[in-house]
Amino acid sequence: MEKTLVVVESPAKAKTIKKYLGKGYEVKASVGHIKDLPNQAAKDRRSPLKGAFPGSPVLGVDVSDDFKPYYEIIPGKEKVIKDLRDSAARVDRLFLATDPDREGEAIAWHLKEELGKPDDATYRILFNELTERRIKEAVASPTRLDNNKYNAQQARRILDRIVGYQISPLLWEKVQFGLSAGRVQSVALRIIVDRQNARDKFLPEEYWSVTAFLKAKKPPSFEAKLVEYDGRKIQVGNMKTARTLVNEAVSHPFVVADVQRKERSRRPQPPFITSTMQQEASKKLRFTGTRTMRIAQQLYEGIELGDQGAVGLITYMRTDSTRVAPEAIAAVRQFIGGTYGPNYLPPKPHTYKVGKTAQEAHEAIRPTSMELPPERVARYLDKAQLALYTLIWRRFVASQAAAAIMDMTTASIASGRMTFRATGSVMRFDGYTRIYSVEPEDENGRQSQSKEDTEKALPPLNVGDQLTLGEIVPRQHFTQPPP
Asked: Of 42, 216, 283, 434, which has the fewest CB atoms closer than 10 Å, so is most exposed?
């Protein structure tokens, strides 16, 4: 019988995979990276990287020779590599099953280099969920290592080193010892500084709003804002003008001049990718990005579910693709129809645009099985795991549910030479919002915690209706700097 060594990154994942593969397969973990550029930041604070000229062993990158990197075994990984070499020598095939991203590809290449198996006995297997079906499918159709993906990781790592080791010393000398410059954070810092400079230069301008509080024949009462004077858009710049307008308005009746009613549908948001999961977990659960990824890793690698053993509950959590496998879409549509009824199931599955730079081999972050809803696995999860799993579950289910339908009403109200406008909306069909609530956004694109800000109800209004004025209020405002 042919014997196979499967190498993954984490011991937890190794345990889950071993359960599904059985005899003939040995599953071991590399425990992350085994090789890296040399890490030799000097201890001399006066000359933090003495000798770190291009091409030096301290930098680990020869910029004069096509940016050639020099890798070395990470200290402390010698025992892991020896154990993997011994195991590799006893088997016929080597399956490298590290994570399906650039970092995982780099680990796979370094394992291939160190374990010494011939090319025709070394394979790459990929899966984005730790389920029996996916793992057996991957083992049945192994591929070869992807040199392009490995080079993409190398390019990022080399940039990290060049930026970090050549700019960080300047920060140590000019600002504070121990600060670091990074490939991403240095650019992000520049963007923040530019935005802060724009805020510092911003000169607020005064403006006023004039709001009428009105009643129709039937409740509720509502408010309308002054928008036009003599048919032209009006901007009120000071208190004197605002009070003049108020005095003019109260001397005229308020009459409904026009009513526009439109039906508006609001589509659900796509399932999570890494960035949107971190953003929503921060907003809804108050999790840091690091904590979110740590918990997601646990859900991906497998949770002990009693007699079922370790089960991966979500797909791979490092992804920039909103793509979903057809069988997963079929399963969630069946779940929506059976749980919420046919009205909540759209005629066709929703599709979402995938960014040009997204890795199409990946899927969005989603539950691995619709048969494992949060309430079923709650007793096996801690509080944080359950909260994040529930968020992922609801976002995925909602992404394939029917759109919410709103009745939007805009009423124009005449008062002499002035036109006031009132807008409101009524939820006619809650659709996906029954599963995953989304707060409306304010004028700056920030989400408001109160739906009253954008979804105020209006009474029945018809052209010619005369309204009762409760009061009319001028308010002072100032323009705001960039957020």
From this structure: 283
Which residue type sits at 391? L
Give dist(CA 84, CA 115) in Å, integer: 7
State how far the Cα of 468 lies from the Cα of 415, in Å rounded to an integer. Answer: 12
Tell whether domain 4-151 is in CATH 3.90.76.10.
no
CA-to-CA distance for 402 and 347, rounded, in angstroms?
Answer: 9
Count CB-CB contacts under 10 A for residue 53: 12
CATH top-level class of 206-267+404-478: mainly beta
Q: For residues 61 and 66, what is the distance between their CA atoms, to the nearest angstrom? A: 9
Quick one: which of 155, 401, 387 has its CA closest to 268?
A: 401
Query: Which residues of the chain, if any, have pLDDT below 70?
Result: 40-58, 355-361, 439-455
Per DSSP, 471 falls in state: E
Q: Per-residue pLDDT tens for 69-90?
A: 999 999 999 999 999 999 999 9
Q: What is the CA radius of gyration of the chain?
A: 30
Backbone angles phi, psi at 191, to 5 degrees: -60, -40
C-alpha 233/C-alpha 241 separation (Å) is 15
CA distance 5 to 373: 34
CATH number for the domain whose boundaries are 274-399: 1.10.290.10
Listed residue (74, 79, 81, 77) closest to 40, CA to CA = 74
Residues annotated as part of the active site: 316
Domain residue limits, the chain = 4-151, 206-267+404-478, 274-399
The three-state secondary structure class of 271 is coil
